[in-house]
Write a structure and sequence with these properties.
Elements (H helix, E strand, L loop, with lengths): L10 E3 L6 H11 L3 H9 L5 H9 L14 H14 L3 E5 L3 H16 L4 E5 L10 H9 L4 E5 L6 H9 L4 E4 L13 E3 L15 H19 L11 H10 L6 H16 L3 H9 L10 H18 L3 H8 L3 H35 L9 E6 L6 H12 L3 E6 L4 E7 L6 H7 L6 E4 L3 E7 L3 H13 L10 E3 L1 E2 L7 H8 L13 E14 L3 E8 L2 E7 L12 E13 L2 E13 L5
Parallel strand pairs: 1-12, 2-3, 2-4, 4-5, 5-6, 7-8, 13-14, 16-18
Antiparallel strand pairs: 8-9, 9-11, 10-11, 14-15, 14-17, 15-16, 17-18
Helix pairs in contact: 1-2, 4-8, 5-8, 5-9, 5-13, 6-7, 8-9, 9-10, 9-12, 11-13, 11-14, 12-14, 13-14, 14-15, 16-17
């Protein structure tokens, strides 16, 4: 949130960095801009060998996946399926990771010549892989089921398949309960006993490894040519970025390669979705395009109903097949935005109407008629506005509440929810985000229990600081610097984008856009830089005022033209003496 005009925020350096002389020496050894070395050190990447690998990040750096628990057992089943020409049922969750995992698995197995039945989750059936979904695959006469991004906690559906004699491979990355799922092969990096060193893979990443491992195995025993899974890495990049997985180690390698694949625009569904989203044909597809343009549109179907349109789009083989599906997702995303805005307004009103909300450590709001698919967006908005964990629940006609929880730094949501477990029918997710299901009658008790759990969890007051990398005068911000910063991409979770700050800049020009945003020119001496500050028009800046800001330099491209622009994340007024 933008600061008020009362003064600058409390700034804190991201991490320790060596003196400038050492930075310049290391930059010379690496052949890069010294600021890149500063940024790597601040993010804990300090050894020359690690920095060299980080800047290279090729597929050759991937570690062998056989150490994953359940990996070899899954390969055995898939090899058997290929040799016996089994009919394989693939089931994915309704979000980007689930849909891309289902697309990757189904289309790769089809490319191997296997018959495939592919389904995705439907929120109207409930969360995850339900007995209804399992029964549908049994009726489709599948010989093997592979789940993607679901299955870890879906005991009832898996037991149904076991009772029917259908083997199951579970591919997932969510919280692992104490009871291991009854699957013939269970691949989840978070399960006890998994020896694979990197735990941050999403389900699509695990699925890629599985397809690559299957190809390697088949090539050992057959002279036939098998499809190269690297052509599916665009799906892995989509899932890794949109599921907000840590962009380090394997994920950095996979995402960089996947972004290159996305920029080839080889997949008809991606091409059509980019066009529907208004992305120019020559525009670079980076992690921001994925996270803010492609991801919300792929998610829109599953938020409002069945995720099948998104699955069909990504599986489309021709532009003619993909185009109407992309237009449908665009329309669904527009509808999703409208519903989200209406529900955010209603949720804010409920918080303000609660006389105790200002004293609470966590917020819980619930309403009949809210769409379960957008409660995560609403929870994120409440967390941003109030700076506290928020749970938003949608109550259905039979008195079941399903919702999403979003957290803040320093609070482990799953640990807090475990303390509320007696009131919950089911829950799962990550440290920062989770989903819950419970009886509506238990909501009042949950409000107090969740508030107490968060209130007594450990917090670090330093996390209220604004984290910045370093001070950067405007004279040092130019196109060559932006090009250097691009070499560190992708930025995201666990590899945060750079944030610089500058003080005592004169407002040379200022204009309000759409009553919310500021387009301004900042000057230091003879140097002037244009900037855009989203959502900060309320500051009421005037020409001639002195301001400071936190910013990221970027090259904006529009209609074939490129311009240097500061993306201003926070503005504050400077007193003449500051």
């Amino acid at each position: 949130m933008p600061s008020s005009s009362g003064g600058p925020p409390r700034l804190r350096p991201r991490g320790e960095v060596p003196p400038r002389t050492q930075l310049r020496e290391r930059a010379g050894a690496l052949g890069v801009h010294p600021l890149l070395v500063h940024l790597l050190h601040a993010r804990g990447i300090t050894e020359l060998s690690d920095q060299t690998q980080w800047l290279g990040a090729g597929l050759g750096q991937l570690r062998p996946p056989e150490a994953m628990a359940g990996f070899v057992a899954a390969l055995d089943l898939l090899e058997q399926a290929w040799r016996k020409r089994w009919r394989v049922g693939v089931f994915g969750d309704y979000d980007v990771d689930g849909v891309t995992t289902a697309t990757l698995l189904s289309t790769y197995l089809e490319a191997l010549g296997l018959p495939v039945v592919v389904l995705t989750a439907d929120r109207s059936h409930g969360y995850g892989f339900t007995p209804q979904d399992a029964e549908a695959l049994v009726e489709a006469r599948v010989d093997l089921v592979v789940t993607g991004d679901v299955g870890t906690s879906d005991i009832e559906a898996l037991e149904l398949l076991r009772a029917r004699g259908v083997p199951v491979i579970v591919i997932d990355h969510h919280h692992v309960p104490t009871t291991e799922p009854p699957a013939d092969a269970f691949i989840n990096p978070h399960q006890p006993g998994c020896q694979f060193p990197f735990k941050g893979l999403c389900s699509a990443g695990v699925a890629f490894y599985l397809c690559a491992g299957l190809r390697t195995r088949l090539r050992r025993n057959s002279p036939a040519a098998f499809p190269d899974p690297r052509a599916w890495l665009d799906l892995v990049a989509l899932a890794t970025v949109c599921d907000m997985m840590p962009l380090r180690e394997e994920n950095r390698v996979l995402t960089r390669a996947g972004l290159r694949e996305l920029n080839r625009r080889a997949r008809p569904g991606v091409r059509a979705l980019l066009q529907a989203a208004g992305i120019e044909e020559n525009a670079v597809i980076d992690e921001e395009t994925v996270g803010f343009k492609l991801g919300p549109r792929i998610n829109a179907a599953g938020r409002l109903g069945p995720a099948e349109p998104a699955l069909r789009l990504l599986r489309a083989r021709t532009s003619a097949e993909a185009q109407p599906l992309a237009e449908l997702l665009e329309a669904l995303n527009t509808k999703r935005r409208r519903y989200s805005e209406e529900t955010v307004g209603a949720a804010l009103a409920l918080v303000e109407a609660d006389g105790r909300s200002s004293q609470r450590s966590a917020l819980v709001v619930a309403q009949h008629g809210w769409l379960p698919g957008i409660v995560g967006i609403v929870a994120a908005n409440l967390t941003e506005v109030y700076g506290r964990p928020a749970m938003v629940l949608a109550i259905d006609d039979v008195g079941i509440a399903r919702g999403s929880v979003r957290g803040v730094p320093g609070v482990h949501l799953l640990a807090c929810l475990e303390r509320c477990a007696p009131l919950l029918q089911r829950f799962g997710g990550h440290r920062e985000a989770a989903g819950v299901t419970l009886r509506a009658a238990d909501i009042p008790e949950l409000v107090e229990a969740f508030d107490e759990a968060v209130g007594t969890s450990a917090r670090d007051d330093a996390e209220a600081d604004e984290i910045v990398d370093c001070q950067l005068p405007l004279r040092l911000v130019d196109e060559s610097l932006c090009a250097a910063l691009t070499s560190l991409r992708p930025f995201g979770m666990a590899f945060e984008p750079p944030r610089f700050w500058v003080d005592r800049c004169r407002v040379e020009t200022v204009r309000v856009l759409k009553e919310k945003h500021l387009l301004l020119t900042l000057g230091q001496g003879d140097v002037k830089r244009e900037g855009i500050a989203f959502g900060q028009a309320g500051l009421g800046l005037q020409i001639g005022e002195l301001v400071g800001c936190i910013f990221v330099p970027a090259i904006d491209r529009f209609r074939g033209e490129a311009r240097l622009r500061l993306q201003v994340e926070r503005l504050w007024r400077c007193s003449p003496e500051c």
